[in-house]
Amino acid sequence: MMSDSDGEKAFLKLFTGARDDIMAYLYSLTLSHADAEDIFQDVSLLLWEKFGDWRPDGNFRAWARKMAWNKVQNWRRLKSEAVWDPDVIAALDRAFDEEEKERGALADVKAALEHCLARLSAVNRLILHRLYGENNSYKALARFLNRSVRGLKVTSHRVREKVGECVERRLALEKRQA
Predict the structure, then answer these.
(1) What is the model's pTM?
(2) 4-84 in CATH: which number?
(3) What is the Cβ-side half-sphere exposure of residue 20, based on CA atoms within 13 angstroms?
């Protein structure tokens, strides 16, 4: 059983993480920033009031979108606008779910890349940073490191391959552990 304080913290964490997605969803349904903002206020209050009904093992964003959809349908009825076909809403939900999965996959790749870069030697990290982070030329970096351009290209290729293989292994390990 969650205390009131724990429940508030859990809600705020989930809600702040989903805020932009809820707003984007509302805008996609209303095509008006002002209307989306107005409905967002109602949705926010409703989510807080109904948070006790949400299952912690469920998808908060999907649950919030369902609440938002209901609020938009009520708003449309009050404005005497056409209520959207449930198939259209289902298609929007699928699109938002897919985008959420892609965002999670990108976060996994980023975490794996950071892990793998941290395992490189300082010189190899410097080479990658100068070439790709600062966009230096091979010629300028070779001169800085007092190395040949050809040797630097070979080294950078090997380091990129090593990082790529490390990322693939790390992602496969995370997939097996999930």
Answers:
(1) 0.49
(2) 1.10.1740.10
(3) 3
